[in-house]
Amino acid sequence: PDPEAFDPEIVSLLDEMVRDISFALDNFDRERMRQEAVSEASKSQERFRAYFDSALIGMVALSPDGHFLEANESFLRMTGYTRSELFARQWEEIKDPEDRYAAREDYDRVMRGEIDFYRKDKRLLRSDGQIIYGHTAVRAVRKSTGEVDYFVINIEDVTRKEKIPGDDLAAGELRSVDRGSPTGSCFWTA
């Protein structure tokens, strides 16, 4: 073949076209991957929302400074607050005054990055002033920097069981703990 068969200008033009096509194909691949990631994130969010909203226990998400970010219907029913009433308060405001500092050491350990999860028995105040006894499981969700982004708290209302004299649950006897799940599960026997 004759090396002069193609004009250098045509060769340059063809090279440029190949680069442009390659660039366009790369962009199409990146856009397809981005759309797949957005779709997966949306599905994941929908699964979380379904779990959160249908949970039989109370669930809330709190900012590191204690402001409510989310609350499921079970928690609203348990506490008697409307969503707007609850979101106008902080977590500390609905805790029994005697319990407000009970978890401070665990909270400080989470904020220092020593732990991500803890359990505490708490007394919460309903909107009508009644006391709710609850077993709480607190999980920190961290940013990529390691800072706490928010907390997810599961609250099981054990008020009725707390009032039964001689009940093992009232004495706080834990029968087993499932440490395999992201938030942990407690199984109590009465």
Automatic annotation (TrEMBL):
Domain annotation PAS: ranges: 44-114
Gene3D superfamilies, per database record: PAS domain
Chain ranges of the PAC domain: 118-170
Catalytic activity reported: ATP + protein L-histidine = ADP + protein N-phospho-L-histidine
Molecular-function GO term, any one: protein histidine kinase activity
Record PANTHER family: PAC DOMAIN-CONTAINING PROTEIN (PTHR43304:SF1), PHYTOCHROME-LIKE PROTEIN CPH1 (PTHR43304)
Any matching Pfam family: PAS_3
InterPro entries: PAC, PAS, PAS-assoc_C, PAS-like_dom_sf, PAS_fold_3, Sensor_kinase/Photoreceptor
Matching SUPFAM superfamilies: PYP-like sensor domain (PAS domain)
Name of this chain's protein: histidine kinase
UniProt keyword annotation of Ion transport present: no
Keywords annotated in UniProt: Kinase, Phosphoprotein, Transferase
Enzyme Commission code: 2.7.13.3
Enzyme class at the top of the EC tree: transferase
